[in-house]
Specification:
InterPro entries: MFS_trans_sf, POT_fam, PTR2_symporter_CS. Helices cover 64% and strands 6% of the residues.
Length: 579
Protein backbone atom coordinates (compact mmCIF):
# COMPACT_ATOMS: atom_id res chain seq x y z
CA UNK A 1 0.00 0.00 0.00
CA UNK A 2 1.15 3.51 -0.79
CA UNK A 3 -1.05 5.10 1.86
CA UNK A 4 -0.17 4.94 5.54
CA UNK A 5 -2.05 5.98 8.67
CA UNK A 6 -0.15 8.71 10.52
CA UNK A 7 -0.63 10.26 13.97
CA UNK A 8 0.11 13.98 14.18
CA UNK A 9 1.49 15.68 17.27
CA UNK A 10 -1.86 17.43 17.74
CA UNK A 11 -3.58 14.00 17.79
CA UNK A 12 -5.15 14.48 14.36
CA UNK A 13 -4.81 11.68 11.87
CA UNK A 14 -4.56 11.74 8.09
CA UNK A 15 -3.66 9.66 5.08
CA UNK A 16 -0.20 10.39 3.74
CA UNK A 17 1.90 9.50 0.71
CA UNK A 18 4.96 7.56 1.85
CA UNK A 19 7.46 8.96 -0.69
CA UNK A 20 6.55 12.65 -0.35
CA UNK A 21 6.75 15.20 2.45
CA UNK A 22 5.16 18.58 3.12
CA UNK A 23 7.01 21.87 3.63
CA UNK A 24 7.66 20.97 7.29
CA UNK A 25 9.22 17.63 6.40
CA UNK A 26 6.27 15.51 7.61
CA UNK A 27 4.69 12.85 5.36
CA UNK A 28 2.51 14.74 2.88
CA UNK A 29 -1.21 14.89 3.71
CA UNK A 30 -3.09 13.65 0.64
CA UNK A 31 -6.04 15.96 1.29
CA UNK A 32 -4.02 19.13 1.86
CA UNK A 33 -1.10 18.73 -0.54
CA UNK A 34 -0.61 17.88 -4.18
CA UNK A 35 -3.29 17.60 -6.84
CA UNK A 36 -4.43 20.18 -9.35
CA UNK A 37 -4.12 23.35 -7.25
CA UNK A 38 -0.29 23.27 -6.88
CA UNK A 39 0.00 21.71 -10.36
CA UNK A 40 -1.89 24.69 -11.80
CA UNK A 41 0.59 27.03 -10.11
CA UNK A 42 3.44 25.10 -11.73
CA UNK A 43 1.73 25.42 -15.13
CA UNK A 44 1.55 29.17 -14.49
CA UNK A 45 5.29 29.21 -13.79
CA UNK A 46 5.96 27.50 -17.13
CA UNK A 47 3.74 29.99 -18.98
CA UNK A 48 5.73 32.88 -17.44
CA UNK A 49 9.06 31.24 -18.31
CA UNK A 50 8.01 30.47 -21.88
CA UNK A 51 6.61 33.98 -22.34
CA UNK A 52 9.91 35.46 -21.20
CA UNK A 53 12.32 33.14 -23.04
CA UNK A 54 10.45 32.97 -26.35
CA UNK A 55 9.61 36.66 -26.23
CA UNK A 56 13.34 37.35 -26.22
CA UNK A 57 14.59 34.56 -28.51
CA UNK A 58 12.26 34.77 -31.52
CA UNK A 59 12.91 38.42 -32.28
CA UNK A 60 16.47 38.78 -30.96
CA UNK A 61 18.00 38.36 -34.43
CA UNK A 62 16.31 41.57 -35.66
CA UNK A 63 17.65 43.52 -32.65
CA UNK A 64 21.18 42.23 -33.22
CA UNK A 65 21.06 43.18 -36.89
CA UNK A 66 18.98 46.35 -36.78
CA UNK A 67 20.20 47.95 -33.54
CA UNK A 68 23.56 46.35 -32.74
CA UNK A 69 24.45 46.30 -36.48
CA UNK A 70 25.82 42.76 -36.52
CA UNK A 71 26.02 40.76 -39.80
CA UNK A 72 23.12 38.35 -40.36
CA UNK A 73 25.31 35.26 -39.86
CA UNK A 74 26.74 36.60 -36.60
CA UNK A 75 23.26 37.51 -35.38
CA UNK A 76 21.98 34.02 -36.16
CA UNK A 77 24.88 32.42 -34.27
CA UNK A 78 24.35 34.62 -31.21
CA UNK A 79 20.72 33.46 -31.03
CA UNK A 80 21.45 29.76 -31.58
CA UNK A 81 24.37 29.77 -29.11
CA UNK A 82 22.12 31.44 -26.53
CA UNK A 83 19.35 28.87 -26.97
CA UNK A 84 21.79 25.96 -27.16
CA UNK A 85 23.38 27.00 -23.88
CA UNK A 86 19.94 27.31 -22.27
CA UNK A 87 19.08 23.69 -23.02
CA UNK A 88 22.57 22.39 -22.26
CA UNK A 89 22.40 23.96 -18.80
CA UNK A 90 19.35 21.79 -18.09
CA UNK A 91 21.88 19.06 -17.24
CA UNK A 92 23.43 21.29 -14.58
CA UNK A 93 20.04 22.21 -13.18
CA UNK A 94 18.97 18.56 -13.07
CA UNK A 95 22.21 17.54 -11.34
CA UNK A 96 21.81 20.22 -8.65
CA UNK A 97 18.14 19.35 -8.12
CA UNK A 98 18.78 15.60 -7.82
CA UNK A 99 21.89 15.86 -5.67
CA UNK A 100 21.70 18.94 -3.47
CA UNK A 101 18.82 21.38 -3.77
CA UNK A 102 15.65 19.50 -4.63
CA UNK A 103 13.30 20.70 -7.36
CA UNK A 104 11.52 23.44 -5.40
CA UNK A 105 14.67 25.29 -4.36
CA UNK A 106 16.17 24.82 -7.84
CA UNK A 107 13.13 26.48 -9.45
CA UNK A 108 13.17 29.42 -7.02
CA UNK A 109 16.92 30.04 -7.37
CA UNK A 110 17.10 29.79 -11.15
CA UNK A 111 13.87 31.75 -11.69
CA UNK A 112 15.52 34.54 -9.69
CA UNK A 113 18.63 34.33 -11.91
CA UNK A 114 16.48 34.54 -15.03
CA UNK A 115 14.65 37.57 -13.60
CA UNK A 116 18.01 39.26 -13.04
CA UNK A 117 19.01 38.45 -16.63
CA UNK A 118 15.83 39.82 -18.22
CA UNK A 119 16.13 42.96 -16.09
CA UNK A 120 19.72 43.44 -17.28
CA UNK A 121 18.58 42.97 -20.89
CA UNK A 122 15.80 45.54 -20.46
CA UNK A 123 18.34 47.99 -19.03
CA UNK A 124 20.84 47.38 -21.85
CA UNK A 125 18.21 48.18 -24.49
CA UNK A 126 17.13 51.33 -22.62
CA UNK A 127 20.48 53.07 -22.05
CA UNK A 128 21.87 54.71 -25.25
CA UNK A 129 25.50 54.09 -24.21
CA UNK A 130 24.88 50.33 -24.28
CA UNK A 131 24.13 50.25 -28.01
CA UNK A 132 25.79 51.84 -31.08
CA UNK A 133 24.37 55.03 -32.64
CA UNK A 134 21.64 54.53 -35.24
CA UNK A 135 22.55 54.58 -38.91
CA UNK A 136 20.58 55.61 -41.96
CA UNK A 137 20.01 53.50 -45.09
CA UNK A 138 22.58 50.95 -43.89
CA UNK A 139 25.42 53.35 -44.74
CA UNK A 140 28.42 53.72 -42.39
CA UNK A 141 26.77 51.64 -39.67
CA UNK A 142 28.89 51.35 -36.55
CA UNK A 143 28.92 47.82 -35.13
CA UNK A 144 28.46 47.37 -31.36
CA UNK A 145 31.74 47.54 -29.48
CA UNK A 146 33.14 44.99 -27.03
CA UNK A 147 31.68 46.64 -23.92
CA UNK A 148 28.20 46.88 -25.40
CA UNK A 149 28.28 43.27 -26.56
CA UNK A 150 29.69 42.23 -23.18
CA UNK A 151 26.68 43.65 -21.33
CA UNK A 152 24.35 42.01 -23.84
CA UNK A 153 26.09 38.63 -23.44
CA UNK A 154 25.95 38.98 -19.64
CA UNK A 155 22.18 39.47 -19.81
CA UNK A 156 21.62 36.66 -22.31
CA UNK A 157 23.68 34.08 -20.46
CA UNK A 158 22.11 34.95 -17.11
CA UNK A 159 18.80 34.22 -18.84
CA UNK A 160 20.26 31.00 -20.29
CA UNK A 161 21.45 29.87 -16.85
CA UNK A 162 18.08 30.65 -15.30
CA UNK A 163 16.14 28.96 -18.10
CA UNK A 164 18.28 25.81 -17.92
CA UNK A 165 17.88 25.39 -14.17
CA UNK A 166 14.19 26.21 -14.21
CA UNK A 167 13.29 24.01 -17.19
CA UNK A 168 15.16 21.02 -15.76
CA UNK A 169 12.89 20.85 -12.71
CA UNK A 170 9.53 22.44 -13.43
CA UNK A 171 7.94 19.49 -15.28
CA UNK A 172 9.27 16.99 -12.73
CA UNK A 173 8.03 19.11 -9.84
CA UNK A 174 4.62 19.14 -11.50
CA UNK A 175 4.48 15.35 -11.67
CA UNK A 176 5.59 15.18 -8.01
CA UNK A 177 2.15 16.54 -7.11
CA UNK A 178 0.48 13.30 -8.24
CA UNK A 179 0.81 9.76 -6.89
CA UNK A 180 1.51 7.24 -9.68
CA UNK A 181 0.21 4.34 -7.56
CA UNK A 182 -3.18 5.99 -7.01
CA UNK A 183 -5.42 5.40 -10.05
CA UNK A 184 -7.28 8.71 -9.80
CA UNK A 185 -4.08 10.73 -9.45
CA UNK A 186 -2.35 8.70 -12.18
CA UNK A 187 -5.09 9.78 -14.60
CA UNK A 188 -4.65 13.38 -13.47
CA UNK A 189 -0.91 13.10 -14.16
CA UNK A 190 -1.60 12.06 -17.76
CA UNK A 191 -3.74 15.17 -18.20
CA UNK A 192 -0.97 17.25 -16.63
CA UNK A 193 1.52 16.14 -19.34
CA UNK A 194 -0.93 17.08 -22.10
CA UNK A 195 -1.74 20.44 -20.56
CA UNK A 196 1.91 21.13 -19.81
CA UNK A 197 2.83 20.87 -23.52
CA UNK A 198 -0.29 22.88 -24.45
CA UNK A 199 0.59 25.70 -22.07
CA UNK A 200 4.20 25.74 -23.30
CA UNK A 201 2.84 26.37 -26.79
CA UNK A 202 0.25 28.87 -25.53
CA UNK A 203 2.92 30.90 -23.74
CA UNK A 204 5.03 30.79 -26.89
CA UNK A 205 2.09 32.02 -28.99
CA UNK A 206 1.55 35.06 -26.76
CA UNK A 207 5.30 35.75 -26.87
CA UNK A 208 5.61 35.69 -30.66
CA UNK A 209 2.53 37.87 -31.17
CA UNK A 210 1.97 40.37 -28.35
CA UNK A 211 5.54 40.71 -27.05
CA UNK A 212 7.13 40.83 -30.50
CA UNK A 213 4.67 43.54 -31.56
CA UNK A 214 5.56 45.60 -28.48
CA UNK A 215 9.27 45.16 -29.26
CA UNK A 216 8.93 46.43 -32.81
CA UNK A 217 6.24 49.07 -32.45
CA UNK A 218 6.59 50.40 -28.87
CA UNK A 219 10.05 49.62 -27.54
CA UNK A 220 12.42 46.81 -26.68
CA UNK A 221 12.99 47.99 -23.13
CA UNK A 222 9.26 47.89 -22.38
CA UNK A 223 8.87 44.39 -23.87
CA UNK A 224 11.87 43.06 -21.96
CA UNK A 225 10.56 44.80 -18.86
CA UNK A 226 7.36 42.79 -19.28
CA UNK A 227 9.53 39.66 -19.47
CA UNK A 228 11.14 40.69 -16.18
CA UNK A 229 7.75 41.21 -14.56
CA UNK A 230 6.62 37.85 -15.96
CA UNK A 231 9.53 36.08 -14.27
CA UNK A 232 8.90 37.96 -11.01
CA UNK A 233 5.29 36.72 -11.16
CA UNK A 234 6.67 33.18 -11.68
CA UNK A 235 8.65 33.51 -8.43
CA UNK A 236 5.54 34.71 -6.58
CA UNK A 237 3.55 31.78 -7.99
CA UNK A 238 6.07 29.17 -6.91
CA UNK A 239 6.35 30.67 -3.43
CA UNK A 240 2.57 31.03 -3.01
CA UNK A 241 2.10 27.27 -3.12
CA UNK A 242 4.81 26.41 -0.58
CA UNK A 243 2.34 24.89 1.90
CA UNK A 244 0.41 22.98 -0.79
CA UNK A 245 3.27 21.23 -2.58
CA UNK A 246 4.46 17.67 -2.16
CA UNK A 247 8.25 17.46 -2.01
CA UNK A 248 10.39 14.49 -3.01
CA UNK A 249 13.73 14.05 -1.25
CA UNK A 250 16.90 14.23 -3.33
CA UNK A 251 18.28 10.73 -3.95
CA UNK A 252 21.53 11.59 -5.66
CA UNK A 253 22.37 12.16 -9.29
CA UNK A 254 22.32 9.24 -11.74
CA UNK A 255 25.38 10.81 -13.36
CA UNK A 256 27.40 9.55 -10.39
CA UNK A 257 26.06 6.00 -10.87
CA UNK A 258 26.99 6.09 -14.56
CA UNK A 259 30.49 7.32 -13.77
CA UNK A 260 30.94 4.60 -11.15
CA UNK A 261 30.14 1.86 -13.71
CA UNK A 262 32.48 3.40 -16.29
CA UNK A 263 35.34 3.85 -13.81
CA UNK A 264 34.95 0.31 -12.41
CA UNK A 265 34.83 -1.17 -15.95
CA UNK A 266 37.99 0.72 -16.96
CA UNK A 267 39.83 -0.45 -13.85
CA UNK A 268 38.98 -4.07 -14.68
CA UNK A 269 39.34 -3.83 -18.46
CA UNK A 270 42.11 -6.47 -18.50
CA UNK A 271 40.13 -9.00 -16.46
CA UNK A 272 38.21 -11.82 -18.12
CA UNK A 273 34.48 -12.20 -17.62
CA UNK A 274 33.43 -15.33 -15.70
CA UNK A 275 31.93 -18.18 -17.69
CA UNK A 276 28.78 -18.09 -15.52
CA UNK A 277 27.13 -14.67 -15.33
CA UNK A 278 25.68 -15.67 -11.95
CA UNK A 279 29.18 -15.05 -10.56
CA UNK A 280 28.84 -11.32 -11.30
CA UNK A 281 28.03 -9.14 -8.30
CA UNK A 282 24.32 -8.56 -7.67
CA UNK A 283 22.65 -7.57 -4.41
CA UNK A 284 19.81 -5.38 -5.66
CA UNK A 285 16.31 -5.99 -4.24
CA UNK A 286 14.21 -8.41 -6.30
CA UNK A 287 11.73 -5.71 -7.23
CA UNK A 288 14.38 -3.50 -8.83
CA UNK A 289 16.65 -6.12 -10.45
CA UNK A 290 17.29 -5.91 -14.20
CA UNK A 291 18.05 -9.03 -16.27
CA UNK A 292 21.58 -9.36 -17.62
CA UNK A 293 21.98 -8.78 -21.37
CA UNK A 294 24.85 -9.70 -23.68
CA UNK A 295 25.25 -6.26 -25.24
CA UNK A 296 28.18 -4.00 -24.33
CA UNK A 297 29.95 -6.76 -22.41
CA UNK A 298 32.89 -4.45 -21.71
CA UNK A 299 30.66 -2.78 -19.11
CA UNK A 300 29.97 -6.14 -17.42
CA UNK A 301 33.52 -6.07 -16.08
CA UNK A 302 32.38 -3.47 -13.55
CA UNK A 303 30.47 -6.29 -11.80
CA UNK A 304 33.43 -8.72 -11.57
CA UNK A 305 34.28 -9.39 -7.93
CA UNK A 306 37.98 -8.84 -7.25
CA UNK A 307 40.28 -8.46 -4.27
CA UNK A 308 40.05 -5.04 -2.64
CA UNK A 309 36.52 -4.33 -3.88
CA UNK A 310 35.02 -4.37 -0.38
CA UNK A 311 35.51 -1.77 2.32
CA UNK A 312 35.21 -2.70 5.99
CA UNK A 313 32.90 -0.43 7.98
CA UNK A 314 32.88 -1.49 11.63
CA UNK A 315 32.02 -5.17 11.76
CA UNK A 316 30.50 -5.19 8.29
CA UNK A 317 31.96 -4.85 4.81
CA UNK A 318 30.36 -3.23 1.80
CA UNK A 319 31.45 -2.88 -1.84
CA UNK A 320 33.29 0.25 -2.96
CA UNK A 321 30.92 1.57 -5.69
CA UNK A 322 33.86 2.96 -7.69
CA UNK A 323 35.40 -0.53 -7.87
CA UNK A 324 32.45 -2.92 -7.85
CA UNK A 325 28.96 -2.36 -9.26
CA UNK A 326 25.90 -4.59 -9.36
CA UNK A 327 24.60 -6.19 -12.55
CA UNK A 328 21.55 -3.94 -12.22
CA UNK A 329 23.76 -0.83 -12.13
CA UNK A 330 25.57 -2.04 -15.23
CA UNK A 331 22.32 -2.83 -17.06
CA UNK A 332 20.99 0.65 -16.24
CA UNK A 333 24.01 2.17 -17.93
CA UNK A 334 23.53 -0.18 -20.89
CA UNK A 335 19.95 1.04 -21.23
CA UNK A 336 21.19 4.63 -21.36
CA UNK A 337 23.87 3.71 -23.93
CA UNK A 338 21.19 2.14 -26.16
CA UNK A 339 19.41 5.50 -26.26
CA UNK A 340 22.41 7.23 -27.83
CA UNK A 341 21.97 6.20 -31.51
CA UNK A 342 18.41 7.58 -31.58
CA UNK A 343 19.62 10.60 -29.60
CA UNK A 344 22.29 11.32 -32.23
CA UNK A 345 19.96 11.01 -35.23
CA UNK A 346 17.33 13.41 -33.82
CA UNK A 347 19.74 16.30 -33.25
CA UNK A 348 19.53 17.54 -36.85
CA UNK A 349 15.82 18.29 -36.49
CA UNK A 350 16.64 21.05 -34.02
CA UNK A 351 19.24 22.44 -36.43
CA UNK A 352 16.42 22.90 -38.94
CA UNK A 353 14.23 24.31 -36.17
CA UNK A 354 16.89 26.92 -35.40
CA UNK A 355 16.44 28.43 -38.87
CA UNK A 356 12.80 29.26 -38.06
CA UNK A 357 13.85 31.78 -35.41
CA UNK A 358 16.92 33.10 -37.19
CA UNK A 359 17.14 33.23 -40.98
CA UNK A 360 13.39 32.83 -41.53
CA UNK A 361 12.84 35.94 -39.39
CA UNK A 362 15.55 37.76 -41.38
CA UNK A 363 13.74 36.73 -44.59
CA UNK A 364 10.47 38.08 -43.21
CA UNK A 365 12.09 41.43 -42.39
CA UNK A 366 12.83 41.99 -46.10
CA UNK A 367 9.29 41.24 -47.34
CA UNK A 368 5.98 43.07 -47.48
CA UNK A 369 4.32 42.63 -44.08
CA UNK A 370 1.48 45.15 -44.23
CA UNK A 371 -2.12 43.95 -43.88
CA UNK A 372 -4.41 46.93 -44.25
CA UNK A 373 -2.98 49.50 -41.85
CA UNK A 374 -1.31 46.92 -39.64
CA UNK A 375 2.32 45.95 -40.13
CA UNK A 376 3.15 42.43 -38.94
CA UNK A 377 6.42 42.26 -36.97
CA UNK A 378 8.92 39.94 -38.65
CA UNK A 379 9.30 37.83 -35.51
CA UNK A 380 5.53 37.28 -35.31
CA UNK A 381 5.68 34.98 -38.35
CA UNK A 382 6.75 32.30 -35.85
CA UNK A 383 3.12 32.38 -34.69
CA UNK A 384 2.37 30.09 -37.64
CA UNK A 385 5.01 27.76 -36.25
CA UNK A 386 3.26 27.61 -32.87
CA UNK A 387 -0.18 27.32 -34.49
CA UNK A 388 1.10 24.35 -36.51
CA UNK A 389 2.13 22.65 -33.25
CA UNK A 390 -1.26 23.26 -31.61
CA UNK A 391 -3.17 22.20 -34.73
CA UNK A 392 -1.10 19.03 -35.18
CA UNK A 393 -1.52 18.05 -31.53
CA UNK A 394 -5.30 18.61 -31.78
CA UNK A 395 -5.67 16.56 -34.98
CA UNK A 396 -3.45 13.80 -33.61
CA UNK A 397 -5.38 13.53 -30.31
CA UNK A 398 -8.90 13.85 -31.73
CA UNK A 399 -8.60 12.13 -35.11
CA UNK A 400 -5.45 10.06 -35.63
CA UNK A 401 -5.38 8.27 -32.25
CA UNK A 402 -9.02 6.99 -32.44
CA UNK A 403 -8.63 5.91 -36.09
CA UNK A 404 -5.25 4.25 -35.46
CA UNK A 405 -6.66 2.41 -32.45
CA UNK A 406 -9.50 0.97 -34.56
CA UNK A 407 -7.17 0.02 -37.40
CA UNK A 408 -4.03 -1.16 -35.61
CA UNK A 409 -5.31 -1.68 -32.07
CA UNK A 410 -2.70 0.72 -30.62
CA UNK A 411 -3.28 4.27 -29.31
CA UNK A 412 -1.56 6.24 -32.05
CA UNK A 413 1.91 6.08 -33.54
CA UNK A 414 4.82 4.59 -31.64
CA UNK A 415 7.58 6.85 -30.32
CA UNK A 416 9.89 5.80 -33.18
CA UNK A 417 7.21 6.51 -35.78
CA UNK A 418 6.52 9.97 -34.37
CA UNK A 419 10.21 10.85 -34.44
CA UNK A 420 10.41 9.60 -38.04
CA UNK A 421 7.49 11.86 -39.00
CA UNK A 422 9.21 14.79 -37.34
CA UNK A 423 12.41 14.20 -39.31
CA UNK A 424 10.49 13.86 -42.59
CA UNK A 425 8.50 17.05 -42.04
CA UNK A 426 11.59 19.09 -41.07
CA UNK A 427 13.40 17.90 -44.22
CA UNK A 428 10.38 18.86 -46.34
CA UNK A 429 10.32 22.19 -44.51
CA UNK A 430 13.93 22.91 -45.47
CA UNK A 431 13.25 21.89 -49.08
CA UNK A 432 10.22 24.21 -49.18
CA UNK A 433 12.31 26.99 -47.61
CA UNK A 434 14.94 26.60 -50.34
CA UNK A 435 12.32 26.86 -53.12
CA UNK A 436 10.63 29.86 -51.48
CA UNK A 437 13.98 31.61 -51.02
CA UNK A 438 14.80 31.06 -54.69
CA UNK A 439 11.57 32.91 -55.56
CA UNK A 440 12.31 35.71 -53.07
CA UNK A 441 15.85 36.15 -54.44
CA UNK A 442 14.59 36.33 -58.02
CA UNK A 443 12.25 39.16 -57.00
CA UNK A 444 15.07 40.90 -55.10
CA UNK A 445 17.27 40.66 -58.19
CA UNK A 446 14.53 42.02 -60.46
CA UNK A 447 14.16 45.18 -58.34
CA UNK A 448 17.87 45.65 -57.73
CA UNK A 449 18.01 44.46 -54.12
CA UNK A 450 16.77 46.02 -50.91
CA UNK A 451 19.43 48.73 -50.62
CA UNK A 452 17.14 51.46 -49.27
CA UNK A 453 15.55 49.37 -46.57
CA UNK A 454 12.23 49.17 -48.44
CA UNK A 455 10.40 45.80 -48.39
CA UNK A 456 10.43 43.64 -51.49
CA UNK A 457 7.15 43.48 -53.46
CA UNK A 458 6.32 40.00 -52.23
CA UNK A 459 4.02 38.96 -49.36
CA UNK A 460 5.60 37.63 -46.20
CA UNK A 461 2.89 34.95 -46.13
CA UNK A 462 4.89 33.13 -48.79
CA UNK A 463 7.04 31.85 -45.88
CA UNK A 464 4.12 30.08 -44.17
CA UNK A 465 4.76 26.58 -45.64
CA UNK A 466 8.22 26.27 -44.04
CA UNK A 467 6.85 27.36 -40.66
CA UNK A 468 3.90 24.94 -40.88
CA UNK A 469 6.01 21.96 -41.94
CA UNK A 470 8.71 22.36 -39.28
CA UNK A 471 6.09 23.25 -36.64
CA UNK A 472 4.10 20.09 -37.36
CA UNK A 473 7.39 18.19 -37.25
CA UNK A 474 8.12 19.52 -33.77
CA UNK A 475 4.72 18.36 -32.50
CA UNK A 476 5.63 14.80 -33.51
CA UNK A 477 9.32 14.70 -32.63
CA UNK A 478 9.04 16.49 -29.27
CA UNK A 479 6.38 14.11 -27.94
CA UNK A 480 8.10 11.13 -29.57
CA UNK A 481 11.48 11.96 -28.04
CA UNK A 482 9.98 12.62 -24.60
CA UNK A 483 8.11 9.32 -24.71
CA UNK A 484 11.17 7.41 -25.98
CA UNK A 485 13.67 8.77 -23.47
CA UNK A 486 11.38 8.44 -20.45
CA UNK A 487 9.86 5.01 -21.12
CA UNK A 488 13.07 3.31 -22.28
CA UNK A 489 15.33 4.50 -19.49
CA UNK A 490 15.71 2.88 -16.05
CA UNK A 491 13.44 4.19 -13.30
CA UNK A 492 16.35 5.64 -11.35
CA UNK A 493 17.49 7.69 -14.36
CA UNK A 494 14.28 9.34 -15.59
CA UNK A 495 15.60 12.83 -14.83
CA UNK A 496 18.87 12.00 -16.55
CA UNK A 497 17.08 10.73 -19.65
CA UNK A 498 14.97 13.91 -19.81
CA UNK A 499 18.19 15.92 -19.66
CA UNK A 500 19.60 13.73 -22.44
CA UNK A 501 16.55 14.56 -24.55
CA UNK A 502 17.02 18.29 -23.96
CA UNK A 503 20.66 18.08 -25.06
CA UNK A 504 19.42 17.20 -28.56
CA UNK A 505 17.92 20.69 -28.66
CA UNK A 506 21.14 22.22 -27.35
CA UNK A 507 23.37 20.40 -29.82
CA UNK A 508 20.97 21.15 -32.67
CA UNK A 509 21.41 24.87 -32.02
CA UNK A 510 25.19 24.54 -31.67
CA UNK A 511 25.42 22.57 -34.93
CA UNK A 512 23.44 25.36 -36.58
CA UNK A 513 26.04 27.87 -35.39
CA UNK A 514 28.83 25.58 -36.58
CA UNK A 515 27.28 25.11 -40.04
CA UNK A 516 26.70 28.84 -40.42
CA UNK A 517 30.34 29.55 -39.53
CA UNK A 518 31.66 26.87 -41.91
CA UNK A 519 29.41 27.91 -44.81
CA UNK A 520 30.25 31.56 -44.21
CA UNK A 521 33.98 30.78 -44.31
CA UNK A 522 33.86 28.43 -47.30
CA UNK A 523 31.53 30.45 -49.52
CA UNK A 524 32.12 33.96 -48.20
CA UNK A 525 34.21 36.75 -49.72
CA UNK A 526 36.06 39.73 -48.25
CA UNK A 527 33.21 42.09 -49.11
CA UNK A 528 30.68 40.12 -47.03
CA UNK A 529 29.09 38.17 -49.90
CA UNK A 530 28.59 34.40 -50.35
CA UNK A 531 25.77 32.05 -49.45
CA UNK A 532 25.21 33.79 -46.12
CA UNK A 533 25.87 37.38 -47.17
CA UNK A 534 25.54 40.23 -44.69
CA UNK A 535 22.57 41.35 -46.79
CA UNK A 536 20.64 38.19 -47.63
CA UNK A 537 19.32 39.80 -50.82
CA UNK A 538 22.84 39.45 -52.22
CA UNK A 539 23.44 35.93 -50.84
CA UNK A 540 22.30 32.39 -51.59
CA UNK A 541 20.33 31.43 -48.50
CA UNK A 542 18.45 28.98 -50.71
CA UNK A 543 21.65 26.94 -51.07
CA UNK A 544 22.06 26.83 -47.30
CA UNK A 545 18.48 25.60 -46.89
CA UNK A 546 19.12 23.06 -49.64
CA UNK A 547 22.21 21.83 -47.79
CA UNK A 548 20.12 21.28 -44.65
CA UNK A 549 17.51 19.39 -46.72
CA UNK A 550 20.22 17.09 -48.14
CA UNK A 551 21.67 16.51 -44.67
CA UNK A 552 18.13 15.76 -43.50
CA UNK A 553 17.70 13.03 -46.14
CA UNK A 554 21.03 11.42 -45.19
CA UNK A 555 20.22 11.67 -41.48
CA UNK A 556 16.80 10.08 -42.03
CA UNK A 557 18.43 7.13 -43.79
CA UNK A 558 20.71 6.61 -40.78
CA UNK A 559 17.71 6.98 -38.46
CA UNK A 560 15.83 4.18 -40.26
CA UNK A 561 18.78 1.81 -39.72
CA UNK A 562 19.09 2.78 -36.05
CA UNK A 563 15.32 2.53 -35.49
CA UNK A 564 15.23 -0.93 -37.06
CA UNK A 565 18.07 -2.06 -34.76
CA UNK A 566 16.27 -0.55 -31.78
CA UNK A 567 13.01 -2.29 -32.67
CA UNK A 568 14.82 -5.61 -33.10
CA UNK A 569 16.53 -5.13 -29.74
CA UNK A 570 13.13 -4.42 -28.12
CA UNK A 571 11.81 -7.78 -29.38
CA UNK A 572 14.89 -9.58 -28.06
CA UNK A 573 14.45 -7.92 -24.66
CA UNK A 574 10.80 -8.98 -24.55
CA UNK A 575 11.81 -12.58 -25.27
CA UNK A 576 14.33 -12.47 -22.39
CA UNK A 577 11.63 -11.11 -20.06
CA UNK A 578 9.25 -13.91 -21.07
CA UNK A 579 11.94 -16.54 -20.48
Amino acid sequence: MRLIYVLRQDDKTYWAVTDAVDYKGFPADREKTGGWVPAALILGIEICERLSTMGIAVNLVTYLGGTMHLPSSTSANVVTDFLGTSFLLCLLGGFLADTFLGRFKTIVIFASIQTLGTGTLALSTKLPKLRPPPCHSNVNCEEANGFQMGILYLALYLIALGTGGLKSSVSGFGTDQFDEKNEAEKTQMAYFFNRFFFFISLGGLVAVTVLVYIQDEVGRSLAYGICTVSMFVAILLILSGTKRYRYKKSQGSPIVSILQVIVAAIRKRKMNLPYDIQMLHENSPDGSKIHHTNQFQCLDKAAIIAEGDFVKIGSCSSPNPWKLCTVTNVEEVKMMVKLLPIWATTILFWTAYAQMITYSVVQASTMERTVGRFKIPAGSLTAFFVLAILLTCGIYDCLIIPLWKKWKGTPGFTDLQRMALGLILSTLGMAAAALIEMKRLSIAKSVGGNTNGEPLPVSVFMLIPQFLLVGAGEAFIYTGQLDFFITRSPKSMKTMSTGLFLTTLALGFFISSFLVSVVKKVTGTHDGQGWLADDINHGRLDCFYGLLAILGVINFGVYLVVAAWNKKDDKATQMVDVV
